[in-house]
Predict the structure.
Amino acid sequence: MKTSKKYLPLFLGVAIAIGIFIGGKLNFTDSSDRLFTSNSKKDKLNRLIDYIDYEYVDEVNTDSIVDVTVNGILENLDPHSVYIPKEDMQRVSENMKGDFVGIGISFYTYKDTIAVIRTVEGGPSEKTGIQGGDRILIANNDTLFGKNYSNSAIVNKLKGLMDSDVELKVYRKGEPDLLDFKVTRNHVPIASVDAAYMLTHNLGYVKINRFAESTFKEFKTQLKKLKKLGATQIALDLRGNPGGFLTIAEQIVDEFLEDDKLILFTKNKRGTIEKSFATKKGDFEKANVFVLIDENSASASEIVAGALQDNDKGTIVGRRSYGKGLVQREMQLGDGSAVRLTVSRYYTPTGRSIQRSYKNGNKDYYDEYFDRLESGELLDPDKIQVADSLKFKTPKGKVVYGGGGIIPDVFVPLDLSMQNETFNFLQQTGFLNYFVFEQLDKQREAYDNLTQEDFVNDFIISDDVIQDFQVYLRERLNRNITFLTFKDEIKLIIKASLGQQLFGEGTYQEVINQKDIMIDEVISLSKEN
């Protein structure tokens, strides 16, 4: 496998997302007057900005100077204390809340036109009659096609106030005239549970992509459905999950831990310790649980894995997690922007801090993925570096380690068959998803009577589709790309993408899991239990 640091932005983005996703509400006991009283250090900064504003030879946007200053201050604290500019606050807040007010579609900007991939189930657009494949040309007399709008600009035109109407003109293949729709905006969920289904007759599977305000409610709903289907064991997939609200992680752990078991404790700079314990609310305390983690499972994901591991509950499966043991809280800055500031560290029940070192600066911190890859840790558990001074024992005597992530009970190596550079390029650039959309758009009616279950179990991607994809890429990239060595993997991801566009994220995950070596390991472990 070839690995290049050209993928650094991807992992840097993951790390930044981790910092942004963690938090709550900042609840200072001091009044704002006491907290922000004047002193010489603060006056110095204010006077410098005013001096630049009034006297600098060229016009300067002092707002941008303030942004740079705030970012510079936070970068010298830790990698996860972050500044959120006001233009990003709404998106970040909606993502963590778990919904927004809009019309409820997923879309591509396809050939300078808004092409609907699918409508959100139960959302405003579905109720109105908009369908996958429709092209939205006009919204409230504003022409949307043929313009170089960014996705965010399009979203802003389609979002709006609760119960407000947007009048759309839509082109639909086979219809002689444009169709008119009046869509009343409403709450549209941003799902944090990607998939929930049965892996075997008694093993349920739940995939959580982040810990938002709505996550526990989503999780609880799916857990009840799985129990009705016969689940006595649960595979909780937290791979790639960057974290979120600490309290949500605690609620999910509570579903599996017996009453009064310690979930975690936090400690701030004053040495104040706050402990969190399991309650009587758990509905799955007698069941076996498998937690799937990898190198991008962070923060709240690690709280779940660490709490269960330290209480000798279930089995942690996968690779060493990210290693983030810091807790952030949010403070509004008065102009629509905010800071998520690290205010404490959290510790697992045995007393472990799993925060990895950031003493060499943010760059080295973000580059650790490459260090793990180059050391062979992602392929061989014996390459994981542990310190005897950070050794802890669970109540049943199992040895666990602090100092940089949760080390799984059962190691599963990185699947190299899914790490080909060409394969990654096609996914990251969107070429594969665009190709699938075009294929679906040509014969959408052919899938009308296909159920989700039949698609997952029986639908096959033919060799002809692979050949069409190669022609598609040659026309757009002006070079030949063949899939001789990973044809099966390409077929799998094409089928998964097609399933996503037809049925949603859950179908994508279910298809991908059919060839997932970590899922196979969990199924084997569940049979042993």
